[in-house]
Every structure is written in C-alpha cells, then in structure tokens.
Design brief:
Elements: H1 2-10, H2 21-28, E1 32-36, E2 41-43, E3 52-58, E4 61-66, E5 72-78, E6 83-84, H3 86-91, E7 98-101, E8 105-111, H4 112-121, H5 123-150, E9 174-176, H6 181-191, E10 195-199, E11 205-210, H7 211-219, E12 239-241, H8 246-256, E13 260-265, E14 268-274, H9 275-282, H10 286-295, H11 299-302, H12 304-318, H13 323-349, E15 356-361, E16 376-381, H14 391-404, E17 411-412, E18 418-420, H15 421-433, E19 448-451, H16 454-469, H17 472-483, E20 507-508, H18 509-528, H19 535-546, H20 551-574, E21 582-583, H21 590-614
Parallel strand pairs: 9-10, 12-13, 16-17, 16-18
Antiparallel strand pairs: 1-8, 2-7, 3-6, 3-8, 4-5, 4-7, 10-11, 13-14, 15-16, 15-19, 20-21
Helix pairs in contact: 5-20, 5-21, 8-10, 8-13, 10-12, 10-13, 12-13, 12-20, 13-14, 15-16, 17-18, 17-21, 18-19, 18-20, 18-21, 19-20, 20-21
C-alpha cells in the first residue's frame, strides 16, 4: 500500500508526471523516507554534494544563502510536492544554498544513481528539471542582486512595474469634433485639465487638444475661436492599454516628444496620463531629460546631458526598474542626442547637397545601450539628388567629424558608414551572398532611422531579414561567427578571467555575456523571419508564435547580465571613474557568481545546439 501511495505521489509532481509508469516504478526502488524535525538543516551551502533528490511529502523547508557577514538571505520556501538538491545531484557540486526544515517535515529520498539512470533514459524530462532550476533559483538571485545594489523593496511604488491604468485619477473628459475652440478651451478651464480628447460621432477618440495647442496654434496664430476644435487637434492620438506598465506610456512620450497619452481598456477610453503623473509617482521623469536635449541650442550644452542621464539611470536603478527598461531610456536619450547633433551640425555646415538619413544599428538599434557603450551610427544619401558620391560624400564626412568632435559617446565604422541607399543595398546583398568579401555587420539587421527617410531604410531592413530567412547557407556562416565567441568557462565549468595585462582578473560582461545572447537570438529570429529589432521583442515572438522552449531562460539570463553591467557602471561613476563593461567576479556575492556561471553555461549550451543543427564547429578565438 505504501509503495503504491509513493508511486501515485511522484506521478503527480511535474515534470516527473511526464515519465511512463515503468520509470516511476524505477524511481521508487530503493527510495527512502526521512523525517526532518523543525530547525534541522538538511543541506549545507558549499558542503558535501547531495546524494539524493529530496521530494517533500509533507511540511515546509526554506532555502537560504549565507552572506559574507554571516547573515541569512531567504530565497525560497518549498512545500508538499516540491523538491530540492537536484543540481547538486546532477553536477556533483556542493549545494548552492542551505536547506532547513521550517516545520516538522517528511521527505522522499530518491538515490542519485537511480535518478540519473531514469533521466538518462528520458532526456526531455531531464531538460525540464534543469530548466526549472534556472528559471527559479537564478531569477530569485537576480531579484536579490537588484535589492542589494538598489535598496529596492516591494513596498515601493515602482514606475516601471505600475500598470498605467493605476495612474488615472478621474473620469475621462472629451468633446465632439464639432465643438468650437472657445467652448473646448472653456471646458478645459472648468475641468482644470491640460488636455481634451476629441471624439467622433460614435464617441471614439480621434484627436487631442492640449494647452500647448491653445498657446501655439491659437494665441500665436490669432485663429478664429469659433472654428471647430478638429481644426487644431493633434491626430492620430497616441494610445496605451491600461494593463501595460507605465514604462510603455513613458517610452511613447519620449519617442514622440509628447506630454499626454490616451489610456484605453478593452478598446474603451479610460482616461489620460501626463508627464506630471510620472513626476508625482516617481519624483522625476526621463521625459524631462529628453525635453532638455531637444531644447539644447549648442554643442557645449549637449555634454551636460550625460550627467543628467547618469543621475536618471541611478534613480531608476534605485527604484527597481528592470535593466531592459533602463536600457530603453538610455537608448531613447541617445536617439534624441543624435537627432539634435544632426540639426545643430546642419545649422553650422549648411543644408546638405543631398537628403541624408542618419540611422542607428546594432546595440543601439535593439534599444539595449548601457552607459558605457556608444551608439553606432551610419549615414545613407539619396542618390537621386546631385552628387551622392562627390559633394554629398564630402558633406557626410564633415558631418561625421562634427559628430565625433562632440563629447557625447557616438561611433562610426571607419570607411563603410557613408553610402547611398543603392550602395547600402548592394553592400548588404553582397554580404548575404559572399560574406567572406564583405566585413561582417550583423547589427544592420537592427538598423533604425533617427532622421531622414525612415520608410526606405525600414524597407531595406525588411528585405534583408526575408533574404536571410530564405538563405540557410548565409545563416550557417552567421552561426559559425556567433559560436566562435565562446563563453568564459574553463576546466570544470569555472568562470575564466584575464590572467594578465590591463584587464587582469576581469571579464567583459558585454562581449562575453550580453552580445553572445543577442547574437544567438538574432539567428533564431532570422530562421523564422521575425522582424522585431530588440532581443526581448524577438524572444517574446519566438515564445508566443513559435513555442521556443528556452525563451524564458535567455530572457532571465540577459536581464541578469544587463543588471550587473548597469550596477557596475554606476559603481564606477560613484567613484569618479569612467564606466566600462569589465567586472571582477570576486566582487560579487557567492550566489551572484553562481548565477553568472549559470548564464555562461546557458550560452555554451545554446552555442552547442546551434553548432549541431547547422553542422559548424566553434573555433576558439
């Protein structure tokens, strides 16, 4: 009876429930039953490797880390039907955390040899067990890393986690399109609002009138106040769903340089949020930083933006903003800086002899910049106008020199960043067909216009993605390049750092962590013809539309590595050092070092998977 009860119990635990009855039967052979009195430590962090997989039949255990000062950091509680000790059993390494019974508990002990034999016969179940560790332990360690560096607590109201619908403080106010400007202005005054939604005959929002419109379009231009409000409204109106985080509304304000965003819920108008609402919630808003950039009238004042940006990033980090949201803020500010530098340069150099498109690519195109990495730029000329290879080329290089003369980190690639649109197309096609003859520029799959002809640039990018999706030979060459950047893992999977030179005892978090993950995801996205630029956007589409099994793991690892980068750079700035991507792993807490190792092991596994599928060998650097 007891044996049957044990079989039934194990068969209800995921992912063991995926095993056939014969495999469950095998696990039950030699299985042990042990009683743990409350307060007893079952496993020791860094102690002897576990010889059993512990499955909790009754009771609760805590998993905690011992800090350098002897304090305890609880990372999880587990109860009936959950397990612990898995990674120690599989790897033979010491346990990664302490485990203590928080109440009188009973555990089933599956012997190591029995477990490994069953998992070897059923690799799909083994994979799910190991993935459950990464998504659980590493994610909790990541949260602790954020708390340790930022002072973040769950009690704070976090700008980047609050649903935008929570900011709505009053019922929406709207007026029909036929309302006169004077009536609309009176309504705004009566309601004490800075914007008014304009609705069509069905009540659907079609535009917005703001207090800025009243100043710039009516007072300044002396318009007839009896005209309908539809003659001065801004349309289409920028919208965000009430369930989305405030960050989405904030990024739309930054991108479109607006101060009001319409909030909808189930296609119904819920209300309006403004930049002031973010200031009330957070105390400051990155949109103010963007506005300062756009108001800059000379090159010298642009340099002040860097200090403002660093302070903004420090604030966002302290308040618990996720790394990918902070990177989007940094990138959006960089976009606005580039646009403003282009405008200031044109005012200084005169109008260009041919229409120019300034665009970002690579990390900046993916909206994944940090404080250290400079956005990469390139220029495209309109060859239909005069002198694309003569006067226009000379002008472009003068513009390039002007960009590089500003103390704002921006970079061009020497000798290949200024081309006409047709030259860019020829360059990209030759790269797809004969990559050995053309310098590799995978970042062009993420190019995005800052000024100029965004439509032509996007059409070129879409053509590239579709061509790559249909060309397995090209992707195979891209995979060979991707897997050549091996993660820094040495003997027994230890993290390897430089042993000599300027970067001794440190590793490059971007080059060896963030970039390899972005490169892998780019290949996976190209296989499916996914048009998203950002790594996160690509992962979400791979997960939702293509059921990619490792999307969550990669997202967690990328977020963790980006978090370490940002904290490292802020720590440098706090001591008046120039920020960089170099990290000494010994400065991390023990749990953080283990999570860093897990992230690199994930990269190695992804590289191996791509190498096998495409039949390419990873060559050492």
């Amino acid at each position: 009876m007891l044996q049957q009860e044990t079989r039934d119990f194990l068969s209800r635990i995921h992912p063991l429930d995926l095993l056939p009855a014969s495999a469950i039967e095998a696990l039950c052979e030699d299985i042990g039953l042990e009683y743990f009195r409350r307060g007893v430590k079952v496993l020791d962090q860094g102690g002897s490797a576990a010889e059993h997989l512990f499955v909790i039949k009754r009771g609760t255990v805590s998993m905690f880390l011992t800090a350098d000062d002897g304090g305890e950091l609880i990372i999880d509680y587990r109860g009936e039907g959950e397990y612990f000790g898995l990674l120690s059993v599989i790897s033979g390494d010491p346990p990664r955390s302490n485990v203590r019974a928080e109440e009188d508990s009973i555990g089933l002990l599956i012997p190591k040899e029995r477990l490994l034999a069953v998992l070897e016969e059923h690799p799909a179940v083994s994979d799910r067990l190991v993935r459950s560790y990464f998504l659980d332990f590493v994610d909790k360690t990541y949260e602790e890393t954020r708390r340790r560096h930022s002072g973040f607590t769950n009690g704070h109201r976090i700008l980047f986690a609050t649903p935008v619908g929570d900011l709505i403080r009053r019922e929406p106010v709207s007026a029909p399109e036929s309302t006169s400007i004077q009536e609309a202005a009176q309504l705004m005054g009566e309601q004490k609002i800075s914007s008014l939604v304009v609705a069509d005959s069905s009540g659907a929002p079609v535009g917005i009138m703001t207090d800025r419109d009243l100043r710039e379009k009516i007072v300044a231009q002396g318009r007839d106040l009896s005209q309908p409000v539809s003659t001065i409204m801004s349309s289409p109106i920028i919208q965000v769903d009430a369930s989305e985080p405030c960050s989405e509304a904030l990024f739309k304000m930054m991108r479109y340089n607006i101060h009001h965003v319409l909030v909808t819920q189930e296609d119904r108008f819920r209300g309006m949020v403004t930049n002031h609402d973010f200031m009330v919630l957070q105390g400051s808003s990155p949109t103010l930083l963007v506005r300062k950039v756009l108001e800059t009238l000379n090159f010298e004042h642009l340099e002040e933006t860097r200090e403002r940006l660093e302070r903004t990033v420090a604030t966002l980090s302290r308040e618990g903003a996720k790394a990918h949201d902070i990177s989007r803020v940094i990138t959006e500010v960089a976009r606005k800086q580039v646009a403003q530098i282009a405008a200031l340069a044109e005012a200084e150099l005169g109008a260009p002899p041919a229409s120019l498109t300034v665009f970002l690519l690579g990390e900046a195109g993916r909206s994944e910049l940090c404080l250290h990495r400079a956005p990469e730029l390139a220029l495209a000329c309109d060859e239909a106008q005069s002198g694309p290879r003569g006067l226009a080329s000379t002008y472009c290089h003068r513009l390039q020199d002007r960009f590089e003369g500003v103390r704002v980190p921006i970079r061009f690639r020497d000798g290949e960043s200024v081309k006409s649109f047709s030259e860019w197309r020829d360059h990209l096609l030759r790269w797809l067909e004969e990559p050995e003859t053309v310098p590799a520029r995978a970042g062009l799959f993420e190019m995005i216009a800052v000024t100029g002809d965004a439509h032509s640039l996007e059409a070129l990018r879409v053509d590239m993605v579709r061509a790559a999706a249909a060309d397995e030979a090209f992707r195979s060459r891209l995979v060979a390049e991707t897997v050549s950047n091996r993660p820094p893992l040495g003997f027994l999977g230890r993290v390897v750092v430089a042993t000599s030179g300027e970067h001794r005892d440190r590793l490059d978090l971007y080059k060896k962590g963030v970039a390899p993950l972005a490169d892998v995801v780019r290949v996976l996205a190209l296989e499916k013809g996914i048009l998203a630029r950002s790594t996160l956007g690509r992962l979400r589409e791979l997960r939702s539309r293509h059921d990619y099994a490792h999307a969550d793991e990669i997202e967690n690892a990328l977020e963790y590595l980006q978090t370490l980068r940002i904290h490292q750079q802020l720590a440098h700035l706090a001591t008046a050092e120039e920020p960089d991507d170099l990290l000494d792993p010994q400065t991390l807490a023990n749990s953080e070092r283990k999570s860093l190792k897990e992230a690199f092991q994930l990269i190695a596994a992804l590289h191996d998977s791509l190498s096998r599928r495409y039949g390419v060998r990873a060559e050492s650097e």
